[in-house]
Structure formats: C-alpha cells, structure tokens
C-alpha cells in the first residue's frame, strides 16, 4: 500500500457528516468503504479522513448504496445497457441479479468471479466499482408495474436533441469503473456473459476522467472543453436529500439519467476565451465563478459590472443553479469520451461528455433543469445530446443479499 | 512526488547496462529520462535504479531515441495515422515536424503547446510520451526516395489476414501514451490539429495496458486472453541490437509494425485451460514457460514428457522463439483494445491486441517470424489480423533539434 494514500485529502467531495448520518438512519448492513485500507464514506466507527490518492483501492461491494454513486471517481468507466430477452420475467430477473451480485462481490474484491474465464485479470487495488440499474422496461414485467418509483420516466424530447437510437434506452444497466481499463473490460465481459440467458447488450459507452492532479491529490477533474466539471455538486446533508430516494422499495436507492452529449471542440476552439468563460459563468483556469475567488465559491448571480450581470443570463451555471430551479439539484458524475467511427468510408472522430446525474426523482429534478437549459443555455451552441437513457438504481445490499432484492425479493 | 516511486523495482524491463552502453556510443545529446525525478534509461551519470511505480512521471522529450520506445509502458495510448495532403512536399513535412516537435516538447513537460485551446488540459506527471513515425508514402516524396531505410516495407499478405482498409497504412503516425486518457486525447487533438494544413487523419486506434500490479510495482502486464504478454522481450545489449537501426539517417531510430489483431474471446473461453496454455507454451497464472519455474525463464524447447515435447510444436512461444528464427527478435509493446461498432443496426463489440513491434529491419525481423506464425501458430484459431501498418521511427532529438531532422534537415 502506498503510504501517500493514507494522508488526508484537502477537500473531500463528500461530507463525512452527511453520509455518516445517513448510514445511521438507514442501517443497511455495512458501508461502502475501502477494504484493507481506510473506510470511505459510511461506517459505524468514527469515519477517518478520506485518502489523498484516490487511485488504487478496493471498495466494498456492500453498503447502504451501491458503490459508484458516492465512491470517488475512477479513471475509466464502461456503461452497458441491455434489452431483456422476451422470456425474462421477474423471477428470471431475480436470478440474474443474484448472479451479478456474486460477480460484483468477487470482482470488486479483486477475486475472480465464479467460472471466470480469465481469473488472472481480476486484480486488486484498481478501485473497481460496478453499479446495476433498471430501465423502464423492468416495470413492464408482469407484477412489477405497481413498483414504478415516483418520478421515474424517460426524458421528454428537447429542441436541441439529436438522439440516435443506438445510444438510447435500455432495460438494464451496468456501470463499471476502475483505475485500469483492462480490469473494467474484464469485469464487463463477465457481467455481459452472465447476462446472456436473460438480456442482450444494447449499447456500450466508454468514458474516462482524471480525478487527481499532478501530485496525485483528488480534484474535481475537467471535461474536454477544459472546464472544471462537478464543482457545485451537492455536499453534506444536501447530497443525501438530493440523491437518495425515500420511496418504498427504492428507499436508499436513486435514479440515474445518462445523456450522451457531443461537444463540438472545433467550434469551441474558435470562440475566444472570454466568450467561453461567459457561456459558463466560471473561469477556465480554476473553475471559480466569474464573481468569486475559488472553485468552491457559490455564484453571485446578482453581481453587476458596467450595468449588466457579471454572470450572463444565458450562462450554463446560472441556468442550472438551484436558485433558478426551485432548489432542484442533482449529483453529476460525468465522463469524457472520444469515439471513432466511419461514415461513408471516412473516419469521423467525435468527443463529448457522458453526462450522468443521480437524483431521487427524475421528473422533479433533472427534467425541469434540462428544460430551462434547452431554452436558453449558451452552451447549446457547442453541445448536442445524441443519446438518452434513464435507470432506477436500487439501494445497496449486504453480504448474503443481492442487488434489487427490495424490488424482486 | 510519491516517495514509493523512488524505491527500486524488482525486475527492470530494460537492462541499465545495455542502454547506458548505447548512450555512450550514440552520444546524441541528452537521454530519454524522467524530468524532476530519477533518470530512466540513457544518461551520462551513473544510471539509478528505475522507479517502483511507473505511474505519474514526466519523461524528457529529448534523447537518443524518441520517448515511447524504451520508456516504461503507460496505461492509455492512442495511435493516429495520417495521409499526407497532395501539396505536402518534403519541405512542408519538415515544417510540420518542427511544429510537432514544439508541441511534444511542451506537452511531455505538462505545459500547454503554443496556441493550445485548452491549456489546462496539459497536465504534469501523467507519463506522457509522443512518438512520430513516417509511413512508406513519405519516401515517395520527391527527393526522399533514396533515403528509404533498408528492410522497410509493407507486410506481405498472410493467409490468416482479414485486413480492413480502415485500419491499414498511413503516411505519418503519432503514438501518444500516458497514465490518463484526458491528457492523451488533449495531446492527440493538438497534434492532429497542427497537422491539418499538411495531413489528414486516416485511422485512430485506442488501447490500454496495466503495467503495474496491485501493489503498484511494474510488471509485464496481460492481454485480454489473460496471458502475460511481453515476458521474453529482448533486454540489455540484445535490446539495442534488436531495435536500433545503424543505417544512415535512421541510425539510432527504428522501424515499427502495427497490426490490429482481433481476438475471439468467446471461442477462447470455450477452450480448456490446458489447451489455452498448450497453444502458448506458457502458463496463464504467471507467464512462466511450461518447462520453467518463473516468467523470466527461457523456454526449453527440447524438453519432452510422455514422448512428446512439453512445449507443443505449434505453440506460439515456440514458433516465435529466436532459436526457431535465426535469432531474429523484436521489441513488442502491445495494447489491449475493445471496440464497439454497429453492423446492420446491431451493436458489435470486439476485443483484441494492437500489436506493436519495434525492430531495426522489418524485412529481416518481423516478416519471417510472422510467416512462420501464419503457417503453424496454434493461436491462429482465435486471432485475426484486421489492420496492418509500418512506420520508420526517426531517432530522438535534442533541445533545438526536431524529429526527423536527420532525414529532412
Ligand atoms: C456537455 C454538456 C455539459 C457540460 C460541458 C457541462 C458543464 C458544466 C460545468 C463546467 C459546470 C460548472 C461547474 C460545476 O458545478 O460542475 C456545470 C454545472 C452544472 N451543470 Fe452542466 N454541463 C453540461 C450539461 C448539463 C446538463 C444536461 C445538465 C442537466 C440538465 C447540467 C446541469 C448542471 C448543474 C445542475 C450544474 C451546477 C449548477 C450549480 O449548482 O451551480 N449540465 N456544468
Ligand atoms: C493477438 C495476437 C498475439 C498474442 C495474443 C500474442 C501473445 C504472446 C504471448 C502471451 C507471448 C509469450 C510471452 C512473451 O514473451 O511475451 C508471446 C511471445 C512472442 N510473440 Fe506473440 N502474440 C500475438 C501475436 C504475435 C505476432 C503477430 C508476432 C510477430 C509476428 C508475435 C511475436 C512474438 C514473439 C517474438 C514472442 C517472444 C518469443 C520468445 O522470444 O520466447 N506475436 N506472444
């Protein structure tokens, strides 16, 4: 173990108090923490400071939430959506969830899953997390309809959308992250292969993030426009209120929106730096609001200079700000992507953001914010949603339990 | 700086003596080493032990060789091949090389390149390397034909090839690696964008590798079959003799073969572990030869048990072994890939190896070995080359110089 990992991190993305409080309230077995290192997040014991280096950890598969929601961001991620096969009913889905739970428990601990074809690729200390979600199709299965969580729905069409079916929808989701792409692809392969009797792969999205700075300390990270992305994410008690459902079987779980958003880097590059910063309302250098000093400062939306607001009326960070959205928030965990295809025989290279946001209620949180961004966001000039999917993320599970048991059990 | 990086590494992939010897002989300015850390490889001072952690370094852009040949493997890589535009002559190519050299010198040091659109994405300590290569088309430019290096040629068609034009060829290559995909994509974007007046993108291949074990120590790494891949790479004096050209302007440079080789993981999984190991002649658990104890042992091709050779006659490691190939060797630096496309509306996910091999002379080294593998290799059952490209890799450059100057200067 790298001793540097055990030194305190200057800014924790998650308030310890907040998560600790929730763990007490929910009491679902153990905690999503680091195995064989220091605990991260939920714990019964006094929670230590999170580690300085977020690279190279084992996270516990067990806890009040599935790992991959509150755990620190890793470097590499793969999201796979599946279509249920016609024969898969609720009880078959329950069998798949038990199989996946076994896989996840092993792989997150750096152990091969049962029947693993390449057991040596199950490696420890790569910060592997694997999250399972249910798409709308699950609630069309006989008997499950009445369990549809409040506010869980597809995103209505937006003016700026150019959705392609190949990136849309899905009845099931797995979202695997780690600090190593070989480990991610090995875990994904195991999960896809075990799903074969029940569901077929619909789409795969691969993304990456840099969650540390040059010294290895945890930072917010940047998208491919160069913007610091994730700064204003909710923290502390607000984080839980924002993300965690209290609704029936989903209590302690959450809802996830995945939008594949293409970013036109060529036209972005043509804009001046001033215009780029004005479109966001934040500085490119350090992510601080144009009205503030440092990344953590809140926006001052009323501040004016030379007779107009410092943060433009169409600035993304203004329009997305809770004060403009009846205090609606979400937890964003974006991933950068680059993708290479051939169109009419010519190679086309695209870049963008796999926008991922957790919230308790999609209808009440993501959708209204997305509507106001769709109307006026200055960023729309350079960004286009080309894929859209929604998933219910069941609460975590403890040893002996399985993912989705509160719905399917 | 992480103190763990400064502790000695148990097995060095490169013999210090060998590289040190070469530096003395070649004397081309500085050395490809670590800036602000310990030197790696070539140096005038006594060479220290290489670092334990290979993650998170700055490598020097200057040295007898371009970085990315002898530097330790990083986690993420992107290879981009270009077609020269019709108007690009030798002197325009020289201008592009000067621009690229400036970009590379800045980006490898974690500094934005001149005119960088997203300067904050130029990050230090991500082990960035960027290598430039010349395809056959360069030697068709007026005046350059006589400089075609001995043995530099396309790979002849092999029986098992199923080459697709989209992965073939290229007049220029950049090969960028780092421990962070955002840094790689930023650097690639800069280099592609600066090439626009001279060359257009032909193909992009993205790959990944895990060059460390769970404790962070440098290891050989595994391909997606789960095999330890790279064990028998040449070391010490043999490494230089294998890789480095002594031929005219290319002296100190090398030649590179890039083969995109699809690996059928589904049928591989169906084979028993015994059969998988027999097809290679090495163990899956630790990469040791079936006749040996540990990864570093040489194969005993004569050893028999129950009347037949322990290492099968069609085993990949036997057929590729120098003793079977008149002592021909190469330095392999493979990258795993996963790739997702849509065929007839259905998502297709493929996996494989971006096989990359450096050698002094392609005609004399890669081609005969490839021919004997094509004839008899047991691995052929699961592997298919779908892309093929060759590049001359000019020697390194020192401050004030530029990549390719011995050809174009
Ligand atoms: C490619 C598209 C997008 C990019 C590049 C982008 C980028 C950013 C950046 C740089 C920030 C400021 C720093 C931060 O707080 O993270 C931000 C804030 C935010 N964005 Fe986006 N965003 C995109 C799409 C969206 C979408 C689709 C939504 C939701 C519908 C959204 C919701 C938000 C929210 C809620 C905030 C925080 C505002 C605050 O509390 O101050 N973003 N975004
Ligand atoms: C997907 C295709 C391939 C896979 C999975 C693969 C895998 C391996 C593995 C696992 C080894 C043993 C460990 C090591 O020494 O690295 C090896 C050795 C080797 N392979 Fe491959 N290989 C592939 C294609 C090729 C090709 C196309 C060539 C050259 C034409 C090649 C040349 C070699 C050589 C020279 C050795 C070292 C033999 C020795 O010195 O003992 N391989 N390969």
Automatic annotation (TrEMBL), chains A, B:
Keywords (A to Z) from UniProt: Heme, Iron, Metal-binding, Oxidoreductase, Peroxidase, Signal
One GO term describing the cellular component: cytosol
Superkingdom to which the source organism belongs: Bacteria
Disordered, as annotated region: 272-299
Ranges for domain Dyp-type peroxidase C-terminal: 221-396
Domain Dyp-type peroxidase N-terminal positions: 66-208
The keyword Metal-binding belongs to this UniProt entry's keyword annotation: yes
A molecular-function term among this protein's GO annotations: metal ion binding
Manganese is among the record's keywords: no
Family matches, as Pfam families: Dyp_perox_C, Dyp_perox_N
Requisite cofactors: heme b
Entry similarity comment: Belongs to the DyP-type peroxidase family.
The protein's name in its UniProt record: Dye decolorizing peroxidase
Organism: Tessaracoccus bendigoensis DSM 12906
């Amino acid at each position: 173990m790298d001793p540097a990992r055990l030194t305190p991190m200057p800014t924790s993305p998650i308030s310890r108090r907040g998560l600790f409080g929730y763990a007490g309230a929910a009491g679902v077995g153990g905690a999503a923490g680091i195995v064989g290192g220091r605990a991260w997040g939920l714990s019964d014991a006094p929670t230590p400071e999170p580690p300085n280096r977020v690279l190279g950890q084992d996270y516990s598969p067990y806890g009040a939430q599935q790992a991959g929601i509150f755990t620190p961001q890793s470097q590499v991620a793969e999201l796979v959506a599946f279509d249920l096969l016609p024969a898969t009913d609720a009880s078959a889905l329950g069998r798949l969830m038990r199989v996946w739970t076994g896989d996840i428990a092993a792989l997150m601990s750096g152990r091969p899953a049962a029947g693993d074809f390449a057991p040596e690729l199950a490696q420890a200390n790569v910060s592997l997390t694997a999250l399972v979600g249910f798409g709308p199709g699950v609630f069309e299965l006989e008997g499950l309809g009445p369990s549809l969580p409040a506010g869980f729905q597809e995103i209505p069409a937006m003016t700026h959308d150019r959705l392609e079916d190949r990136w849309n929808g899905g009845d099931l989701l797995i979202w695997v992250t780690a600090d190593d792409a070989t480990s991610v692809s090995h875990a994904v392969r195991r999960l896809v292969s075990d799903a074969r009797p029940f569901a077929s792969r619909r789409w795969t999205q691969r993304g990456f993030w840099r969650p540390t700075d040059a010294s290895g300390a945890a930072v917010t990270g940047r998208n491919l426009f160069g913007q610091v992305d994730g700064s204003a994410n909710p923290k502390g008690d607000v984080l839980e209120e924002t993300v965690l459902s209290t609704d029936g079987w989903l209590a302690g779980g959450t809802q996830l929106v995945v939008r594949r958003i293409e970013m036109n880097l060529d036209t972005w590059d043509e804009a001046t730096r001033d215009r780029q910063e004005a479109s966001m309302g934040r500085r490119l250098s350090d992510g601080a609001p144009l009205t503030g000093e440092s990344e953590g400062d809140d926006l001052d939306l009323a501040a004016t200079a030379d007779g107009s607001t410092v943060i433009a009326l169409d600035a993304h960070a203004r329009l997305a700000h809770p004060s403009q959205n009846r205090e609606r928030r979400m937890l964003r965990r974006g991933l950068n992507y680059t993708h290479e295809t051939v169109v009419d025989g010519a190679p086309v290279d695209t870049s963008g953001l796999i926008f991922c946001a957790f919230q308790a209620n999609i209808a009440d949180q993501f959708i209204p914010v997305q509507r106001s961004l769709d109307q006026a966001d200055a960023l729309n000039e350079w960004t286009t949603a080309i894929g859209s999917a929604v998933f219910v993320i069941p609460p975590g599970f403890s040893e002996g339990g399985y993912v989705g048991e509160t719905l399917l059990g």
